[in-house]
Automatic annotation (TrEMBL):
<protein>
    <recommendedName>
        <fullName>Cytochrome P450</fullName>
    </recommendedName>
</protein>
<dbReference type="InterPro" id="IPR036396">
    <property type="entry name" value="Cyt_P450_sf"/>
</dbReference>
<dbReference type="InterPro" id="IPR002397">
    <property type="entry name" value="Cyt_P450_B"/>
</dbReference>
<dbReference type="Pfam" id="PF00067">
    <property type="entry name" value="p450"/>
</dbReference>
<dbReference type="InterPro" id="IPR001128">
    <property type="entry name" value="Cyt_P450"/>
</dbReference>
<comment type="similarity">
    <text>Belongs to the cytochrome P450 family.</text>
</comment>
Length: 441
């Protein structure tokens, strides 16, 4: 989309009231990958992002095409699938990696690891199952796939980052490796399975559902084009690994600061309810870990501020800023508080951090669960807390360089590394509760 196609400059939408009305309307807003990729400001890099990472993905589509693909993929994260995701995929891998990485100390006698690398490898298993990737069954293969996660995630959102051309170069290189090593061999295997089902050699119930099983069956017209299916899978890969790792790292970061200032809560650091509250508070304050996402107005609308939107106008949906509404979340709405009360007006504790409407985050229930006790993310946080995890005082985190001109609130880190140390590594081996959780105060 060129500048001439935009009737007026973009409008900021940063009030909960406006976001609620706009995002729940099927005719008021639509996704537009050109806007998200900032193509008008950078045609070369914007075109790369739209073509290679955004344009063919379900989340940048609307209407019947979006509804069909969402309907096909919803069963992958339905309520009865979440238990398996948590108990059979994420947590066993977390236990295995913790036992492996905390088997011995470093030369200084300290248990250390990079939290981001650890989390990426844990969530690779979930992502591989969701997409339907095969051959992710050895440490070397998992490490290879994990090495692709960061560049692919950055490629989907390079418009917010510095040195965008270099970000895109690395993302394209990672995508090519992903397609060669994982996507094409896996799709070929699924096509063989579908052929056996059609020949009566296998039952339709054999094997777990996944994106690539649906692609092999040509369940949606868009997936008949392999390039479209690749984009769908890389978006699912980037979203499921990237947002999961960032959300847990941010929770650890903010909880650690909170416990230093509020020692009375140290005894709660392994309590699932406390950790779920903390995770939802992180989603409220920092998700989607970018300053805003974009939409396009489809009809005239007047914001609560009096600003009038015009059809075709670019909208910046500032979820993070809206989630700091003092009328809803209190006078300390811009600060992290895991003890924050649930808003009286029925707004979720995470606000609009998972989005709203037809494009609400696909993984909401994967994170918060279905029963108020949290999903795999909360239990993973608890395991880390049992082991006495805390930020490494000698090695600060490393962040991805961002274009700060696009931020209206404080810097929201996108961590590349997050070094941590463990004070009770032996407890993680047995996953036992601490006898005296506050003994280090």
């Amino acid at each position: 989309m060129t500048d001439s196609a935009i009737p007026c400059p973009f409008a900021r939408v940063d009030k909960l009231e406006d976001i609620g009305k706009l995002m729940r309307s099927r005719t008021a807003v639509t996704h537009n990958p050109d806007f998200f990729a900032a193509r008008a400001a950078d045609e070369v890099n914007g075109e790369i992002n739209v073509r290679e990472f955004l344009g063919a993905a379900m989340i940048y589509d609307d209407g019947e095409s979006h509804r069909l693909r969402r309907k096909l993929l919803n069963p992958l994260v339905r309520a009865d699938a979440l238990h398996g995701i948590r108990e059979d995929v994420v947590l066993p891998e977390a236990d295995r990696l913790l036992a492996q990485r905390l088997a011995k100390t470093d030369a200084d006698g300290v248990y250390r690891l990079d939290l981001m690398e650890f989390l990426e490898r844990v969530f690779i298993h979930f992502t591989a199952k969701l997409i339907g990737l095969i051959g992710v069954d050895s440490d070397d293969r998992i490490a290879l796939m994990a090495s692709l996660a960061g560049p692919l995630a950055a490629g989907t959102s390079s418009a917010y980052l510095q040195d965008r051309a270099e970000v895109n170069r690395r993302a394209l290189k990672a995508k090519a490796r992903y397609v060669e090593e994982f996507f094409r061999p896996s799709l070929a295997w699924h096509r063989e399975q579908v052929a056996k089902i059609e020949a009566g050699e296998l039952s339709p119930d054999d094997g777990p559902d996944s994106l690539l099983r649906l692609v092999a069956a040509e369940a949606a017209p868009e997936w008949k084009d392999e390039d479209n299916a690749i984009v769908e899978s890389t978006m699912l890969f980037a979203a499921s690994v990237g947002t999961s790792t960032q959300s847990i790292a941010h929770t650890l970061d903010l909880v650690s600061t909170w416990l230093e200032a509020n020692p009375q809560d140290r005894g709660r650091r392994t309590d699932p309810t406390f950790l779920l509250n903390a995770l939802e508070e992180v989603v409220r304050l920092r998700a989607p870990f970018s300053p805003y996402t974009t939409r396009m107005a489809m009809e005239p609308y007047t914001l609560s501020s009096g600003v009038e939107l015009q059809p075709g106008q670019e909208l910046h949906i500032e979820w993070v800023k809206a989630n700091r509404d003092r009328a809803t979340f209190g006078e300390d709405a811009d600060r992290f508080n895991p003890n924050r009360a649930t808003p009286a007006d029925g707004t979720p504790r995470y606000g609009v951090g998972f989005g709203l409407g037809t494009h609400q985050c696909y993984g909401l229930r994967v994170v918060v669960g279905n029963d108020g006790k949290g999903g795999a993310h909360v239990e993973l946080l608890r395991k880390l807390m049992v082991a006495g995890v805390r930020p490494d005082p000698d090695n600060p985190p490393v962040e991805l360089a961002k274009d700060m001109s696009k931020f209206e609130v404080e810097d929201i880190p996108r961590y590349l590394t997050y070094p941590v140390v463990f004070d009770r590594a032996e407890d993680s081996l047995h996953d036992r509760e601490l006898v005296d959780p506050g003994q280090d105060e």
